[in-house]
Amino acid sequence: MRVAYLGPQGSFSEEAAYKYFTNDNVEWYMCDSIIEVLEAVGENKAETGIVPIENTIEGTINITADGLLRNQLYIEAEIIFPVSMNLLVVEEGIQLHEIREVWSIYPVLAQCKEFIRKAKVKSKQFDSSSAAALAVKEYGRREVAAISSESAAKLFNLHIAKGNIQDNLENHTRFVVVSKDYENSKQWNNKNNKTMLLVSPNKEHSGVLSSILNVFTALSINLTWIESRPTKKKLGTYHFFIEAEGGLHENKISKAITILEAFGHEVHVLGTYHTTHL
Q1: How many CA atoms lie within 13 A of 155 on its CB side?
Q2: Taking the alpha carbons of 205, 210, 211, 213 in that order, is the dihedral positive or negative?
Q3: pLDDT tens for residues 196-248?
Q4: Could you say which of 136, 185, 190, 235 would form a disulfide bridge with 146 (CB–CB 3.0 to 4.6 Å)?
Q5: pTM of structure
Q6: CB of 9 closer than 8 Å to CB of 151
Q7: Domains of the chain, CATH where assigned
């Protein structure tokens, strides 16, 4: 099985992919962007892909949500990955007060802005956190550190001067495993504990989202994620990603879909799946 994931080597996405896919027959297909991962699956260059869709601090990753629809993909699994930001230096024994500049990708720097502010250091953006780690290794400057993953430290033989420097110690990134296999994404598995729906209102009017959500309330269905995205057809028109607690095999979920369709809304099942905590 070929699995597409977001590189480069040492990235958090690679670490999540390696920890989730432990089968020996996996063929890895590294990509340069989230869009490229989704397109690889959509164009059958890979059977499966793993992409980040939400982060505790940064919120929803919109290019993933939009890319799922653009490439007509379905969700097979959800992965909750704890993100630990580490300060990587070129030599063991370098003290924090010696560091004058930190390097990483913008979202990582944003998730560590309180640490950067208190340390009174400059920051420099790179294309990825692992690219920053590689640059620290190649330049060999004691006063520069990278903010990256533990796997990047091992990959580039760097030392962790300080771990868990992110602003929120409960920082997690949610990944989804996607494929083009519609039937596989809808498999009736009693272990599936979530279902992702795309609801497109029959017409835009005041309170339309409220009326949609009332269906789930009436059926005592807990919603774990709601995201509105433009339909890209007409200004001011939106559809809604709605993640519900419960597998497609549960009567309450199928009943909610039936009611929404009876109201004239268009409902697409984007997957029913199990949550894995790494």
Answers
A1: 20
A2: positive
A3: 999 999 877 778 899 999 999 999 999 999 999 998 888 888 899 999 999 99
A4: 136
A5: 0.84
A6: no
A7: 1-83+171-182 (3.40.190.10), 86-162 (3.40.190.10), 186-278 (3.30.70.260)
Residue type, position 216, single letter: F
- Tokens 């997690």, residue located: 172
What CA–CA distances, in Å, run from 243 to 68, 101, 141, 255, 262? Answer: 14, 41, 46, 15, 20
Cα-based distances in Å from 150 to 26, 97, 142, 247:
23, 21, 19, 35
Q: Under 8 Å CB-to-CB from 74, ≥6 apart: which residues?
A: 68, 178, 179, 180, 181, 182, 184, 185, 186, 270, 271
CB 192 within 8 A of CB 269: no
* 21 in Cβ contact with 43 (< 8 Å): no
> What residue has token string 């992110």?
166
User: CA-CA distance, 5 to 213, in Å (whole number)?
Assistant: 34
pLDDT 10s digits, 24-80: 899 999 998 899 999 999 999 999 999 999 988 778 999 999 999 999 999 999 999
Q: How far apart are CA 168 and CA 204, in angstroms?
A: 38
Q: Would you give the distance in Å from CA 118 to the centre of its chain?
A: 28
What is the DSSP secondary-structure string of 92-146? TT--GGG--EEEE-HHHHHHTHHHHHHHT-EEEE-SSHHHHHHHHHHH--TTEEE
Distance in angstroms (rounded) separating the CA atoms of residues 192 and 147: 35
